[in-house]
Amino acid sequence: MTGKNILLPQSLPSFVEVYPNIINRLQSTGAFRTSAHKSPNHIIVNEYLPGQGIMDGPAYHPVVATISLGSHTVFHYYKYTSGTEGSGGSSDSPARVIDPVPVLSVFLEPRSAIITTGSLYTSHLHGQVLMAGCLSLHPNHSPQLRSIREVEGDTIIAGGNDSHPPKLADLNVEIANWRLLAGAQVKEAVIKGGTLQRGVRYSLTCRDVEKVASRAFLRR
């Protein structure tokens, strides 16, 4: 990727196109049907140790697929509030305040995939950390974090129906996808309550980069 966000073309590794053919599986969801290449053409692999996390804002075509390997994690989606606070320092525009209470929290099991698109991509921030008093100059800029708390384990308050859904104790927010969870350990935590420690997690972030360098560009 160049400094102007132009992708230098390179073949994707065989394990994402041959077996288990991750690219075709993501393409078949239809999430990339309006993107320039109708399919992801760029994958970033990151390693996260327990307690590490990241906040991500909008970039590329407004859809991103995230595949989790290794440990579980929790994705929180945050919205901007209607208020502003001073200036962010690099612009005369007032900084926008991010609500520290997520609008959506999703438990990501190992070998799971989550696709973020629509307003959750274009006008929200998502990540694996707990936020408090964060600012950003504009939704299209990376957040300027005042205070974050990284998480090494997730404590679940037991629940099992719509009236009493399981919640994450740190924020007292519902686990939005609790009915879809498949792992025996997390199912037990949902029913009985408990803490699940995070381990090393590997994230495959799959996007469609709209601008790809031509052969003429590469010959310069």
Main sheet properties: 6 strands, antiparallel
How big a fraction of the residues is strand?
A: 35-45%
H and E string: HHEEEEEEEHEEEEEEEHEEH
CATH architecture of the largest domain: Sandwich
Structural write-up:
There is one protein chain. The protein has five helices and 16 strands. It is mainly beta and 220 residues long. It has two domains: 14-151 and 199-218, Jelly Rolls (Sandwich), CATH 2.60.120.10; 153-197, no CATH class. Strands 2, 4, 5, 6, 8 and 10 form a six-stranded antiparallel beta sheet that branches. A four-stranded antiparallel beta sheet has the order 1-16-3-7. Strand 13 (167-168) and strand 14 (173-174) form a beta hairpin. The two termini are 16 Å apart. The relative contact order is 0.25.
Keywords:
mainly beta; six-stranded antiparallel beta sheet; about 35% strand; 5 helices; about 220 residues; Jelly Rolls; single chain
